[in-house]
Amino acid sequence: MLQYFPTPYPDELWYSVLCRYHIRTGNTTSAATFRELFGGKDHAALGSFLPNNLIFDIAGQLPDGTLDIEDIALNHTLFKYIFRFQPLENKNNILEMTKHGKINFPVKISKPYESMELKSCPLCMQEDFKKHGETYWHLSHQIPYVSVCQKHKCYLITRQREYKNELNNNFILPEYKDTDSADYQVSETELEFTKMLTRYLKMPLEAGPTDGYNNLYEGLLNAGYGLARKDMYYSVDYKRLSMNLCDRYGEEFISHHFGSIVLGAALIGQIRRWQKKSPEQYAILSMFLNQEPETTFSHTRIQNNTDRQFIEMSKSKIIRSKKFVAENLGVKETHLDNISHNLGIKPFWEQKPKTENPKSYKLALNLTKSEWDYINGCVNQYGFSSASGFIRYCVDEMKDRTDGITAS
């Protein structure tokens, strides 16, 4: 039975809590602390940034309620971040196994998460030392690919491991020095990326892939990257998207996180179906669209703007030109037929005016230049197919108004 164990600080890594226990006990060797914490064992996976059986083992040596295993797993490890895009059932199963000391990670972890280096912010260390009299490792700083402290907007200091399993054998806290200075020469991309990744860490466990739709994909379509395919809903113009991503963040950044400067149709398809499990690619697309994580994981599907506008325009009395409709929807003219087919709406830009008498009459009309200019202006402004289409619309409107008066 342990007589003492430190209370985790806000945003403290679980490994850091173990390190503070070692320091406060006054043990001169790590071996002595290992024997106290782990039932006489001389080694343990204490350097893991994910929950493991050590939490259960230590909780069992403390009075009931002293250590909340679920709280440690959710708020003091990278569990919520690394498993963010796993199904909720998988996440709950892992959490339950952790609470009962049976964790064995049934879900494969990608290589970037297997051996991570400890990172610290010099300004956070100063604040922690002044407030608590000691330093500790912040959980949010350990997120893979985070290189900036979101609070102080300076670079984090990375501590390189001397060998692969160093953290499993030693209790190491960040070294605080009054002379440490902060480096603020960070890019907007790094700041933006850090902010999004940190939000992915702090969201509730339930936030994750949604059934039947992907609001990130819907966001790409509404941002103008959608290509209408017959019977295939919409695909993403991945070539233009890739070019714009590289223009915004640079080819090196995009290539590093996507494996190429061109995302490719297959990759977009995997993202759409939530098949990519690492959060970074989703985060990059989210910050590119300025889409909040709450929207990405919302149980309300984003409405497709193109479909909505198409339906609204189909209800108009104005018979517009195909070019006008395409330009206002932001799609190619050839895609209008696909949208019409997929929505089951007749191509309203091609409809013939309905007349009771199929016989047509030609009308010679003398107009002033200002009158003619006005007609042409309305044709261009409202998208009529021709001047005769505008005149016919005016006649129909007048008939609708006068029919009511005549009937009364």
Sequence-ordered SSE layout with sheet pairings:
Layout lengths: L13 H12 L4 H8 L15 H7 L9 H7 L3 H4 L5 H12 L18 E3 L1 H11 L24 E3 L6 H4 L18 H15 L12 H11 E3 L5 E3 L1 H12 L1 H8 L6 H8 L6 H11 L3 H4 L8 H10 L7 H8 L3 H11 L25 H14 L4 H21 L1
Antiparallel strand pairs: 1-2, 3-4
> What's the shape?
elongated
Q: Provide the β-strand percentage band.
A: under 5%
How far do the termini sit from each other?
A: 95 Å
What would the average pLDDT be, to the nearest integer?
Answer: 88
The radius of gyration is: 31 Å
Structure description:
- The protein is mainly alpha-helical.
- Helices cover 49% and strands 3% of the residues.
- The protein has helices at 14-25, 30-37, 53-59, 69-75, 79-82, 88-99, 122-132, 166-169, 188-202, 215-225, 238-249, 251-258, 265-272, 279-289, 293-296, 305-314, 322-329, 333-343, 369-382, 387-407; strands at residues 118-120, 157-159, 226-228, 234-236.
- Strands 1-2 form a two-stranded antiparallel ribbon. The chain has a two-stranded antiparallel sheet with strand order 3-4.
- The N and C termini lie far apart (95 Å).
- 28% of the residues are buried.
